[in-house]
Amino acid sequence: MNKVLKYILAYSLWIIDLGLSGWLFYISRTALIGLFAVFYQAGDFQFSKTVNLVDRVFTVILGLGWLVFSIFTEESFRTGALKKDLLRRFARFTGPLLLCIFVVDLVLFWLQGIGGDDWMRWLILAVELVAGLGLFVFGRIPSTKKTV
């Protein structure tokens, strides 16, 4: 495979990870607001101001984390494309990312009321868990390639 195709694959995988991390950003913010809604008491003005502040700080921290994540994954995928271990590097980043999405999605599902007839939601959670664990394990298995 020539160098250009390797870079196209690396940046395609990078865009996938950016999309997944953006999705994690969105659902984690939604889950945080949902958790605060559980503890809300009518007429508590100070609570609403606290929630507003926590939401803004959380958003800034997540935004900075997303920026750092995008920089590290881009550099790692670009380097991995040339060293021929791009898929292992992709698994190292995407596995934990999918597991984080699973945990936050499970909290969100709990906040919205777990129902037995929500089979599609259970299927999505199962796919997130199985794919996350599979990629996590694949990313942690040491390479058997001999380097000269």
Q: Can you walk through the features of this model?
A:
By secondary structure, the protein is an all-alpha fold. The protein has helices spanning 3-38, 45-83, 86-112, 119-140. Helix 1 packs antiparallel against helix 2 (45-83) and helix 1 (3-38) runs parallel beside helix 3 (86-112). It is elongated, with a radius of gyration of 19 Å.
Topology, element by element:
Elements: H1 3-38, H2 45-83, H3 86-112, H4 119-140
Summed up, what is this model?
The protein has helices spanning about 5-40, 45-85, 85-110, 120-140. It contains 4 helices and no strands.
Distance between the termini: 21 Å
Q: Give a quick account of the main beta sheet: strands, pairing sense, barrel closure.
A: none
The backbone outline, from C-alpha atoms, is elongated
What is the number of helical segments per DSSP (H or I, 4+ residues)? Answer: 4
Counted beta strands? 0
Q: Determine the strand fraction and express it as a percent band.
A: under 5%
SSE run: HHHH
The helix content is over 70%
Q: SS-based structural class?
A: mainly alpha
Instruction: Please give the radius of gyration in angstroms.
Output: 19 Å
Unreliable sequence segments: none
Overall mean pLDDT: 88
